[in-house]
Request: fold
Amino acid sequence: MLIRMLAVLLGALCTAALLTAPSAAAAQPGTAQPGAGPPGANDWSCQPSARHPNPIVLTHGLGANAAMNWQRMAPILAGEGYCVFALTYGRAPKAPPPLDRLGGLRRMEESATELSSFVDKVLASTGATKVDIVGHSEGTLMPSYYVRFLNGASKVDKYVSLTPLWEGTTLAGLPALYQFGKHLGLSGVVDEVLARFCGSCPQFLQGSDYLAKLHAAGVFAPEVTYTNIVTRYDEVVIPYTSGLGYGPNVTNIVLQNGCPQNLSEHAALAVDPMTTGHVLNALDPANAEPVHCRPGVPIAGA
Reply:
């Protein structure tokens, strides 16, 4: 039963990520190529401008990939003059096609190692000294391991998170069930089974060992500037306030505080125009522009 319940987490997060693709792809007909980068990204000849000296690294959510998650945002960022790069991380090594094209399925420590190598490649290619990270869902939580434990703090300037879950999620009561199984000595069995198809899934749960290690080190590195963008209608990150953080280098944005009519939920934040406006302001605060209220609609259903 515990394994079946944890599968709910995988299904919910993957569904949210997968449903991001149709709406985004509609804006760029014929460009969605699973496993490839999104339009506007991964031009390895790109040289950063004086206005935007930091390349942007995009990190997708669980069950998505670079092309799927960033179809809308990547070309907008590129159009603003940024060098944009996106990787698909955490592919399950034994997953059959087409599941082998989906990322975020391996333990986040392993994915963070992939991110570390990718950032080094971006820095070497562009000549920049630091990158800015823009992540969605798991792509907000996984890079924190890179920043805190793999020397990423010295290479990351701004860290912008869409639907982050710094405190984990209580989706479907899974954390309590998982902790009960741990008390009975079953967690090792469950982790072994999940590792075959979703090693990261237990790490999202409130009270997980992964989150405990992150909090022990301090979620927010003092050298990095953080912006958290959350929605009250998040049906995956429960409660949505799990994505809020506190510190002198942390800014929180609740989408509905500036626009109650915006109903965007977990998946929709990757394509929501208001969210994109907040991302652009977080990346270039010296040239921030007003983000006007625009009603948003759910993709996966809130």
Q: What stands out?
A: The longest strand covers residues 156-162. The domain at 54-172+204-287 is CATH 3.40.50.1820 (Rossmann fold).
